[in-house]
Every structure is written in C-alpha cells, then in structure tokens.
Amino acid sequence: MGLILKLAILIFCIRHVMNTGRPGQTTAIYAGSFLVVGLVVALIHHFTAIVGMGLAITLIYDLVTGFIFFWLIDRYHDNLLAFYAIIVLGIAASVAIKFMVAFALLP
User: Fold this and answer.
1) What's the DSSP call for residue 36?
2) The pTM of the whole model exceeds 0.85
3) pLDDT tens for residues 44-69?
4) Of 25, 62, 63, 94, which is most buried by a Cβ count within 10 Å?
C-alpha cells in the first residue's frame, strides 16, 4: 500500500478524533480503512486463507494500537509538545513493530 494513502488515512483520522473527541469511532474508521484496502488488494491477487488470517491479525493490531494512539491524541491535543511527540513516537513504534514482525517471519 502506498505511503501517501497511509498518510492520508492517518491525517484524516487525527483530524477526526480532534473534531469529534471519539477515539473509539476513529479507531474503527482507521482499522476499517486498512481492512478494506487490504481486502481489495487481496482480491486482486487471489484471496487465500493465509491472506485472510493475515488480514484478521492486522485488523486486531490496528484496533488495539489505533485505540491507544487516538486516545492519547484526544487526551493531549491541547498540549502541542505532547501532541506532536505522540504522533512521532506512534509512527516510529508502528514502523519498528512491523520491521520486527517481518524479520521474525523470515527464515
């Protein structure tokens, strides 16, 4: 999935949680967006059971980490230093976790 699409979804969700103050609803939008994109890509490349399990694990991961991330943003959006630190650390942690998972699955 393209980096621009990921950033667009993230920016939309950050603005959504700041405007509505509903981190749970924002998490559902965030995880659902990535699930829909993943399903479309999987259908294009012949959906299999392994791909379905990967999408389910990714959905659970996005729901858990997304809720923590958007709850922190909702909680600290008035403090600019904390707000930007949460965004930077959240993105860095997400990238680090995905690299660790990718390297753990390599033979």
Assistant:
1) H
2) no
3) 988 888 888 888 988 998 899 899 99
4) 62
Q: What is the length of the chain?
A: 107
Summarised one tens digit per residue, pLDDT across range 27-38 is 999 999 999 998
Taking alpha carbons only, the member of 11, 66, 62, 71 closest to residue 37 is 62
Backbone angles phi, psi at 47, to 5 degrees: -60, 130
Closest by CA position to 22, among listed 77, 60, 61: 77
Dist CA 106 CA 96 (whole Å): 16
Closest Cα to residue 67, out of 18, 16, 19, 28? Answer: 28
Question: Under a CB-based contact definition with an 8 Å cutoff, are residues 23 and 67 in contact?
Answer: yes
d(CA 52, CA 50): 5
Structure tokens given for 89: 């650390």
